[in-house]
Amino acid sequence: MPKVYLDNAATTAVRPEAITTMTEVLQNEYGNPSSTHNIGQSSKAILEQCRKDIAQLFNAHPGEIIFTSGGTEADNLVLRGAVRDLGVQVLITSPIEHHAVLHTAEALAEEYNITLELLNIDQSGAIDLAHLEALLEKYQGQKILVSLMHVNNEIGVILPLKQVAQMCKTYGALMHSDTVQSIGHYPLDFKEVPVDFAAVAAHKFHGPKGVGFAFIRRGTGLNPMILGGGQERGMRAGTEPVYAVAGMTTALKHAYEHLDKEAAYVLSLKKRFIDGLAELPGVRLNGACGDLANSTYTLVNVGLPIDAAQSAMLLFQLDLKGVACSQGSACQSGSSGGSHVLQALDKVGVPMMPSLRFSFSMFNTPEDIDFALACLKELLEASR
Q1: Where would a tag sit more exposed on the chain, N or C end, judged by fewer CB atoms within 10 A?
Q2: Same domain, 307 and 173
Q3: Residues 148, 243: one domain?
Q4: Is 331 among the residues known to form the active site?
Q5: Number of domains in the chain
Q6: DSSP symbol at 121
Q7: Phi-psi region of 314 (alpha: psi -120 to 50; beta: other; left: phi over 0)
Q8: What are the CA-CA distances from residue 158 to residues 126, 148, 179, 181 (Å)?
């Protein structure tokens, strides 16, 4: 049976170069980087070189890169710290954020009695910037944190991050962005884009799972969420997984070294998929994912002309044929409530349809796309 993996927004295959790096570190650099002896300090040297290499990619200071277990931890570290340590009184976000942000924001509003504001979105999923500015003006004088993702993980809409960050700076607000779906796929210069915080996960750009980092701009005054030893400049206790950090760094460096070529290739696969979908009656592209200028080149979210029960069976049938995709975010697997992102679009006039997300990578081929389309066509015709 063929294996066609089109769920790269959930996680990606690890680059061979990253696997080689991790294997070498696991075999040869087993010391604890907090140990003072030579073997420990050899691991420490690798860790700090990785920190420097990552910082250089984003025009940041090495001390602004804090290694974490992934994007969810980085989001929690920033949001909780901003309320607890920095006195944030107003948290502004959107209804289509990843649950790592939304659920944390809701918990903080309840625990600390802060004001939580959700921004309006349009039918493409784009943030209403006029609404954002109105809220920044309304709460000016209070401590504000704005948290908006750079690229949406379900419908692919891209936030004008630099414009939003500059707007926040104008009003004296702090800015956090979940960049999990954009880092490794788009360049980002933290000197030009004045965000205060960002969250990153290695497994979204062909690195290992279980590792990522938070960008925390110097001077923000954030305190750690996990206490223990003094690792990560006191910002994140726990012995660092040096092999995973090294694998993440290798994957990230390769992603940016080959970005133009690989992005153009993946975009060609997305275009091929969209062209094929045009031949399927009743199929719809959700949000902005069909707008190549305003959505990421890595995914499409497809509304299907069938009922919800048929949609769940369709996902299962595609899997049986060897095609892996998802219903919205893999992080919501098993949830009966459906996609909160599509529910938010429904509220602004885009009726919900049973939907599947297909997401692409450099390891996919045109033949993968054609096979998935053929399977989708066959199963949709059979469901009528």
Answers
A1: N
A2: no
A3: yes
A4: yes
A5: 2
A6: B
A7: alpha
A8: 8, 10, 11, 10
Residues 170 and 269 placed together within one structural domain of the fold:
no
Q: Same domain for 244 and 284?
A: no
Range of the domain at 145: 16-256
- Return d(Cα 239, Cα 242) in angstroms, integer: 9
**β-pairing, 115-118 with 144-147?**
unpaired
Please report, in tens digits, the pLDDT of each residue of the chain (384 residues total).
Answer: 789 999 999 999 999 999 999 999 999 999 999 999 999 999 999 999 999 999 999 999 999 999 999 999 999 999 999 999 999 999 999 999 999 999 999 999 999 999 999 999 999 999 999 999 999 999 999 999 999 999 999 999 999 999 999 999 999 999 999 999 999 999 999 999 999 999 999 999 999 999 999 999 999 999 999 999 999 999 999 999 999 999 999 999 999 999 999 999 999 999 999 999 999 999 999 999 999 999 999 999 999 999 878 888 899 999 999 999 998 654 444 444 579 999 999 999 999 999 999 999 999 999 999 999 999 999 999 887
CA nearest neighbour of 105 among 211, 202, 176, 173? 176
Residue keyed to tokens 């006039």: 349
Query: Are 245 and 275 found together in one domain?
Result: no
Cα–Cα distance measured from residue 326 to residue 324, given in angstroms and rounded to the nearest whole number: 7
143: left (phi over 0), alpha (psi -120 to 50) or beta: beta
Q: How far apart are CA 297 and CA 259, in angstroms?
A: 12
Catalytic residue among 168, 289, 325, 331: 331
pTM higher than 0.85: yes
- Taking a C-beta distance cutoff of 8 angstroms, is the pair 74, 213 a contact? yes
- Is 269 in the same domain as 147? no
Can you spell out the DSSP letters for 40-84? HHHHHHHHHHHHHHHHHHTT--GGGEEEESSHHHHHHHHHHHHHH
Q: Of 218, 240, 256, which closes a domain? A: 256
